[in-house]
Automatic annotation (TrEMBL):
Residue stretches spanning the membrane: 344-366
Protein name: Integrin beta pat-3
Pfam name, any one: Integrin_b_cyt
InterPro entries found in the cross-reference section: EGF_integrin_2 (IPR057073), Integrin_bsu (IPR015812), Integrin_bsu_cyt_dom (IPR014836), Integrin_bsu_tail (IPR012896), Integrin_bsu_tail_dom_sf (IPR036349), Integrin_dom_sf (IPR032695), Integrin_I-EGF_CS (IPR057243)
Domain Integrin beta subunit cytoplasmic per the UniProt entry, residue ranges: 367-413
GO MF annotation, one: integrin binding
Membrane topology qualifier: Single-pass type I membrane protein
The encoding gene: PAT3_2
GO-annotated cellular components: cell surface; focal adhesion; integrin complex; lateral plasma membrane; myofibril; neuron projection; somatodendritic compartment
Cross-referenced SUPFAM superfamilies: EGF/Laminin, Integrin beta tail domain, Integrin domains
Keywords, in A-Z order: Cell membrane, Disulfide bond, Glycoprotein, Integrin, Membrane, Receptor, Repeat, Signal, Transmembrane, Transmembrane helix
Compartment annotation: Lateral cell membrane
Length: 418
């Protein structure tokens, strides 16, 4: 790119270009290897270095070798009303002895800073501000404080318990991980975005107790021996037999076989004297049943029901198994649920009545069909009779009963007349 800025005293022009690589802007005004259709990007900065008598400029910027230019009209403002001598406040207290010009402090005697409050000979305010940046791209004091003589003074918070700290105001005590909406779960302190947990607690938000007491089962095993304690809670796993455990301490196993079948013979022999166990075997049962009118509603118990083949009645019982002591408590309902007796006589009479009624219905249907068929045949006969046409000729083989013969020589009646 070329321009006529050199002919304009008091102006300085700089270029930053993104050439064909198209990744970053570089301090250059030359891009090579450009062909028709290629696109490049230029960033142009105009700066008034000092004031001259001429205040209006026309800058022409364009690619070398092409008759195309960008015309920029520049007007340099050198004088401000607030810079007049009668408006300058000299030795202002707000500027620590400097001059107040247009609301901005003009420092003296080597002082620098926004209010000339810093005695740093040879340094500028911009240089001091750079000392308040953690990186070149960072904001001054991370945008949470002010730079005072090259040092950050962090802003106070409305909540006095919340504090911003750090060399560049990069730390605080209110932006740490939370658990249940509580900073560090109230089990630690927030230090520069990280929780420092109190003794006995761990985790990113100090939400996990180190102790495993909350995972201890009644049998003295962690998570009933069917899981692992993570962050104060049991994480159950699948057993080697494919059973799945759940519950606060992995004590629930819906797919595990219950002790209902195991306790069934003892319940039958003790309560009703039935089942496969004889009297001697029944005495060896590890528990004694507790007969009740109705089964109680208790936690951590298992309900069972079976049909007694001796009478086809259903019986119910409830057991509680204590794994710590390996003892069982069994409650059995005193009465069974038996099906009502089968009414044999009613069934037989019903079958007979059904057969008789079915026979009558079949006879009626047969009779109805017969009547309908006869009526149809009779109607057909009448139609044929009415439509018939009979010949009137005599039967050729028919002979009448009397025959008359005349005697040609008989003249009896004629002679009498003579």
């Amino acid at each position: 790119m070329v321009d006529n800025a050199n002919a304009s005293d008091g102006l300085k022009i700089t270029y930053r270009s993104m050439c064909l690589d198209g990744t970053t802007l570089k301090d250059t005004n030359v891009c090579e290897g450009i062909r028709v259709g290629d696109e490049v990007q230029f960033e142009v900065t105009l700066e008034a270095t000092h004031c001259v008598e001429k205040r209006d400029f026309v800058i022409r910027i364009g690619p070398s070798g092409l008759d195309e230019t960008l015309i920029v009209n520049v007007k340099v403002l050198c004088d401000c009303e607030c810079e007049q001598e009668d408006r300058i406040v000299e030795n202002s207290e707000d500027c620590h002895g400097g001059d107040m010009v247009c609301g901005v402090c003009r420092c003296k005697d080597g002082n620098v800073g926004r209010y000339c409050e810093c005695n740093r000979p040879g340094m500028s305010t911009a240089a001091l501000n750079e000392k308040c940046k953690r990186t070149n791209e960072s904001a001054i004091c991370e945008g949470r404080g002010v730079c005072n003589c090259g040092r950050c003074e962090c802003n106070p918070r409305q909540n006095p318990e919340e504090q911003i700290s750090g060399e560049f105001c990069e730390c605080d005590n209110f932006n740490c991980p939370r658990h249940d909406r509580k900073i560090c779960a109230e089990h630690g302190e927030c230090n520069c975005g990280q929780c420092i947990c109190a003794p006995g607690w761990t985790g990113r938000a100090c939400e996990c107790p180190i102790s495993q007491d909350s995972c201890m089962s009644a049998n003295g095993k962690i998570c009933n021996g069917k899981g692992e304690c993570i962050c104060g809670r049991c994480r159950c796993f699948d057993g080697p037999d494919g059973n799945r455990y759940s519950g606060a301490k992995c004590e629930i196993c819906p797919t595990c076989p219950t002790k209902c079948i195991e306790y069934k013979p003892c319940v039958m022999c003790q309560q009703w004297g039935t089942g496969p166990y004889d009297e001697e075997r029944c005495e060896e049962c590890p528990f004694k049943v507790i007969p009740v009118e109705e089964l109680p509603v208790l936690n951590d118990t298992t309900a069972c029901q079976f049909v007694d083949p001796a009478d086809d009645c259903t019986f119910y019982y409830l057991y509680y198994y204590d794994e710590a002591t390996d003892n069982a408590t069994v409650w059995v309902r005193e009465h069974k649920d038996c099906p009502p007796p089968v009414p044999v006589l009613a069934i037989v009479l019903g079958v007979i009545a059904g057969i008789v009624i079915l026979g009558i219905i079949l006879l009626l249907v047969w009779k109805l069909l017969t009547v309908l068929h006869d009526r149809a045949e009779y109607a057909k006969f009448n139609n044929e009779r009415l439509m018939a046409k009979w010949d009137t000729n005599e039967n050729p083989i028919y002979k009448q009963a009397t025959t008359t013969f005349r005697n040609p020589v008989y003249v009896g009646n004629k002679n009498k007349g003579l």
